[in-house]
Amino acid sequence: MKILVAVKRVIDYNVKVRVKADKTNVDLANVKMAMNPFCEIAVEEAVRLKEKGVASEIIVISIGAKQCQEQIRTALALGADRGIHIETEGTPDSLSVAKLLAKVVAEEQPGLVILGKQAIDSDNNQTGQMLAALLDRPQATFASEVVVAADKVSVKREIDGGLQTIEVDLPAIITADLRLNEPRYASLPNIMKAKRKPLDVKTPEELGVVLSNNITLVSVEPPADRKAGIKVSSVAELVDKLKNEAKVLS
Ligand code: AMP
């Protein structure tokens, strides 16, 4: 079975995001970029399924500017076999990404597509769901455990206040949640080997997809500044402040 994993290039989660002075977007100038953390978990899961003999090939795909190839190479260093980069100007909206992924799924026929549950830049949490709808395939979102058996996959899902286990027929779409696994680090030899793994570059035109433009970013606001914290010297002082200053205790 082939597995297709979608990885998005986003601002590294360790970076403190700055908003541009004119509030038109976040500032990406000289900012460290990385693979979306949920996509790293998706790649790790695919690699583990290959190590268990469930998957035969892992194809990793990223959509966006040329620099996305860095994240594809990272995924190749982590164990994916080949990459596909769909080159676009800027980053298309979720529906366009889902349409492009759907075309690649039609070409490659993977048994599983694994995505992150959410990209930490746009926080959309919708690409996997849209892809499943476009392909009319079963979806198991927010996966925290994945077990493939014959032509089905059993998925534990993180839901409010607990876990839900569902079984879906293959081929299927899965989105990875935080506790699915702990991604490995790429070793230096594997980073070197990844440079020689195949990476195809395609365009939306070649795939026959017209990118939609349904969303306009109106403005971005940074969160309100928080007041600096203080250190208290005793429990009594803390209780006093909670009662009389914060007024959260009576
Ligand atoms: P979102 O729906 O935008 O929160 O993204 C959910 C998941 O869809 C991500 O974790 C990726 O697996 C995938 N995805 C979204 N945008 C892209 C992109 N430009 N290239 C590749 N995968 C993407």
Description:
One of its GO terms (biological process) is carboxylic acid catabolic process. Heterodimer of an alpha and a beta subunit. The protein is of the alpha/beta class and 250 residues long. The chain has one domain: Rossmann fold. Helix content is 28%, strand content 26%. The protein has 7 helices and 11 strands. The strands form 2 sheets. The protein has a 9-stranded mixed sheet, sandwiched between helices. The protein has a two-stranded antiparallel sheet with strand order 2-3. Helix 2 links the parallel strand 4 and strand 5. The longest helix is centred in the N-terminal third of the chain and has 15 residues. It is globular. The chain starts with a strand and ends in a 6-residue tail after the last helix. The relative contact order is 0.18. The mean pLDDT is 95. The protein binds adenosine monophosphate. Adenosine monophosphate (AMP) binds next to helix 1, strand 4, helix 3, strand 6 and helix 4.
Features:
250 residues; alpha/beta; Rossmann fold; nine-stranded mixed sheet; 7 helices; 28% helix; globular; binds adenosine monophosphate; electron transport; Electron transfer flavoprotein subunit beta; ET-Flavoprotein_bsu_CS; Rossmann-like_a/b/a_fold; ETF_b
